[in-house]
Amino acid sequence: MSTQQGVTEERDRWQKVRRLVEAAMELPDAERLSFVRGQSEDTSILSDAEQLLQYDDDASAMFAAVGTTRFPPGEMDSGKKLSGVHIGAYRVLNELGRGGMGVVYLAERADGAYTQLVAVKVLQEGFDTAALAARFLQERQILAGLTHPGIARLLDGGVLDDGRPYLVLEYVDGIPLDTYCHDHALNIRERLNLVLRVADAVQSAHQNLVLHLDLKPANILVTQAGEPRLLDFGIARLLSENGSGKVEVTTRLLTPRYASPEQAAGTPLGVASDVFSLATLLYRLLTGVLPYPLEDASPLETARIIRERPPKPPSQAAPPELREQLRGDLDVILLQALRKEPERRYATVADLAADLQRHLESKPVHAHADSFRYRAEKFIRRNRTSVAAASLAILVLLGSGVAVVRSAVIARQQRAAAERERATAERRLKGMRALAHSYVFDLDPKLEVIAGTVDVRHFVLQNAQKYLEAMSSEVSGDDDLTRETAEGYSRVGQVLDTPDMVTLHDPARAAASMQKGIELQKALVAKHPDNLKDVSELIRQMRHYSWLGQEYGDVEGSYRLSLEDWDIAQPILKAGPSQPRFEDLSSLARDIASDLQGEGDRWNLADPMAALPWLKRSERIREQARQANLAHAESFPMLEGYEHIQFDRGNFLIETGEPEKARPYFEEAYRLTSTGEKNAFQDYDRKAYRMLLAEYLLLIHDPQAAAKLEPELLAAFDDAGKDKLLNSDAAETLIIVGRIEMETGKVTVGKARVERGLEELEAILKKNPSDASVSAPLAWHYFRCAHEPAFDLATRTRMYRRSIEIADAYRVRYPMGLSATMLVGRCELELAKLARQGGKQQEARSIDESAQKEFAKVLAAHPVQPLATKLLAEAIADAAKT
Amino acid sequence: MQNILDDIFQGHGPAKKLNLDAVLPQVYDELHRLAVSYMRRERSNHTLQPTALVSETYLRLVRQHNVDFNNRAHLLGVAAQMMRRILRTYEEQRVAEKRGGDQTTLCLSDLPEPSTKPVLFSDVDETLDRLLQLDDRQGRIAELRIFGGLTTEETAEFMDVSVATAHRDWVSARLWLAREMRLKPAGRRTKASATTTDISTEPRDEHAAGCD
After folding, report:
1. Per-residue model confidence as pLDDT tens digits over A62-95
2. Residues of B in contact with A266 (CB under 8 A)
């Protein structure tokens, strides 16, 4: 049988089968098989049709989204069709509306006994899966159990002749809650009172183990008498039959704008979900807007925003004239009710209502702002690879203020506490209140935007220092206070200056402040050596201090400090990955490696072989942490930091003289930066690794590949701004792009760009000559640019000399920063080659000899240094040529 | 989804006619962008709901162009076809690059019941091709529904057939597709994951609560 013929036969056969199947599907479920069996077709066709009919349930499950026949042919307008029809004792008047799963009709009681309007909710035609029907029946049972005056009552229920179940509900003649508030121009107090009555109804439902899960203005009608009534427990489910308090409800039938984060995420729901939705509703009624901007968001975006975006304090979202009324209690109450994690909200709607009531009665509310540790840790988790952690510093700093205020409040309540303690607490309270206030109400939104906001930081700093001064006099003997003060000093130091971050760049004051913090923290650790939290905080503070040293080129000091830090970290290392900040130790090991042999653009000890075991340690710890976190299933960012590992491996190959092998690592590092969460940090990392990849490609003489990155490189430095960091990035980008152009035939443009970039970096260095984070890259850029053959001999010579000059200026201060010595040697090696090309044999020879001395210095410090060995050999060979 | 669409339309002023040709490239770009970004985001667990992507794309266009309601079926229909093509290209690339492991799975249901199971894109794709062989119109109608979430009326309008025909075509097509996908021999699958995606087995844990 030919294929063509086979296909034709198959088709014909299918036409017969489908006709049978389609006819059968018009019949009620029970009659379908007997209908098919009664037909006079081939038995093979009949059995095929029979078989297909058995897949009805499967198909419903599989294609539930796409197989829904919303309006089957011939029944397009169910409302008209049912109009005038009797349902039980009721006569349908007209359609009121359609919901996610049913049509609601207005009907009246038809037995003449008395006139009563009701709403009849009928399962919509087409929604005929057994699952939905079962759910509908469930709703009926739920509603029958609710008798609160604030909830529309269930009056009756049954099944229509065609098998569709229906409910008869109390008809509520009212207008939606938000419209009501608007039309009656209710003030905030009146609105709160209205919502309190809604809350009462919701609470009563909760006590009957019923969640609403679709609270929104349209589902709450206010009658002419001003009574709110809750409608539509359409997606509610019995809270739980086993008493676990959680119920699995994932549904897209809900109204996304008022959904809770757990609804948006499709995770199990509890009463906290209604707490959240009610708070969203109240927020809307008080401010006129939703807690997050959702107006333009699609449903998918909406779900993401609800899960991730922190709400603005209502006082900031409200029109100016209302702000004063909302600031304070209502801000705090709503923010607590709108927390992303259900367990951190009010436990019940009644608790939320009670706090609102307390507010109305001007009593102190129970809500409190987010704890700083929680926020900070969350922030750190999200941004572990972060660059601009200056904002984080502020966040934590100010957050700690809130914690202090809280402890002070508690202290105040304990009247019996010792007088001195009380006095201390009150003083703390006084010093901290302004800070706490600005944290919650003034700064938080500004901090969402990471870009350089120097004014904000100055402002923060003033407050912070006031706070520290007030506290440092109290320190003696009080451990908690010591902790707070130590951390405060460290944070202030970070805001003053943290390498590679947008900060105030004041290293002297930063160092002083960090030292004070470390001193206090060390005393704490000495007193409580078993408190690993204190240990971990000390590690953190010392890391920051060591970074500061690194930025100013004191690589040896930074290295020693990090080694000391490593010793301090041993108890945590022993305690294993269950320790909360265990993975920080991976970064610490990497810090040490980078002092020994970091990326070329940082001054370092030029000892790659010593760096290697630290890199391996870093990888191992990260892996341990990852494994442990996998078990906890808490969303550990698995790929985070992995790009650094790739980069380190590639960099190691370069520094040991095998750059050509490093390509996959650089490419992978860059690729990894495009995975994972999109945020400012990720974005910065991506730019940085793009630059490093481009530079690497130039190093291995593949300018064509580098050219492919050019458009993105150019686009990236558009956002260069007011800050040193961003400017130096932009300048470096100019240099790299210029070199790519020079090597791909666009010599004139390229040259101009390179020169402009170098000038720019020179200008930045001039402002702060001791800034190693500028001097190192600049010296290295001169070195690499001088390799470009398109520059004339004089220019190249000048560039090598300038590179040596910068390196010399650095190593006078830090002789152990041997990467500068390596650089000087390499420049000399090249200068000698140029001199030799120019026919100056004698000069070439003497420069080569000088280069030999430089490499010998490195080898004296680190006998196993492959690159230094290789270059020394080269210098000797070159010298011999003359 | 339907209700949201309708809400949006009601919220707009006088509708203007949409020049379909003018926006199609944009439809494609948007779909592609969304699909790729979801693939990335979901990394270890690619379960796409193509109908959601199509409707999201559609909503964006509605906002930008103030689309004429009458064109909706056409736009959705074209988007559905594009959606399938994009997923196919992605899948081909994946196979060509020998990226193992994660085959693309689809969620064709938006019901909350845990009984709804993700299916392998490649299974849907292949089975749909066979249906097209059997009955071209039926196959195309199934494609519109599966990849674009079009309703009976919309498929009818797009295909220019009566609503009754569109309804009948789908009634038998869904049964046939369900059977063929369920009976699919494991050997026919490409590589790996037959166990995780076999629709006759229990749903994977992560899908226990549906497909999201």
Report:
1. 775 443 333 222 333 333 455 566 776 777 777 7
2. 209-210, 212
- Is the ipTM here above 0.85? no
Length of chain B: 212
CA distances A138 to A167, A210, A267, B128, Å, are 11, 11, 21, 37
Backbone angles phi, psi at A90, to 5 degrees: -120, 150
Name the residue facing B110 among A59, A71, A252 (closest C-beta). A252
Residue A212: closest CA among A349, A354, A96: A349
Q: What is the pLDDT of residues A610-643, one digit of tens each?
A: 998 998 898 888 888 877 765 554 444 444 467 7
Nearest-angstrom CA–CA distance, A642 and A106:
62
Interchain contact A316–B (C-beta under 8 A)? no
Question: Are the Cβ atoms of B3 and A100 closer than 8 angstroms?
Answer: yes
**A67 phi and psi angles, rounded to 5 deg:** -95, 0
Are A469 and A445 within 8 A, CB to CB?
Answer: no
How far does the CA of residue B118 sit from the closest CA of chain A (Å)?
Answer: 8
pLDDT for res B8? 33
Residues 6+ apart with CB under 8 A from B193: B101, B102, B103, B120
Cα three-residue angle A274-A275-A276, rounded to 5 degrees: 85
Letter for the amino acid at A416?
A
B 31-60 near A (Cβ less than 8 A)? 40, 43, 49, 51-52, 55-56, 59-60
Which residue of A25, A252, A296 is in closest CB contact with B171? A25
**pLDDT tens column, A370-417:** 443 344 344 333 333 222 233 333 333 333 333 333 333 333 333 333
Q: Which of residues 131-190 of A touch B (CB under 8 A)?
A: 131-132
Return the structure tokens found at B101: 């492991």
Count of residues making up chain A: 882
**How close B21 gets to chain A, by Cα (Å)?**
24
Q: A756 versus A362: which is more confidently predicted?
A: A756
Q: What is the CA radius of gyration of chain B?
A: 17
Which chain B residues contact residue A62 at CB under 8 A?
A: 108-109, 116-117, 119, 177-178, 181, 199
Q: What is the pLDDT of residues B150-180, one digit of tens each?
A: 877 788 888 888 888 888 899 999 999 999 9
Contacts of B164 in chain A (CB under 8 A): 73-74
Q: Which of A251, A266, A260 shows the shortest CA–CA distance to A306?
A: A260
CB pairs under 8 A between A and B: 141
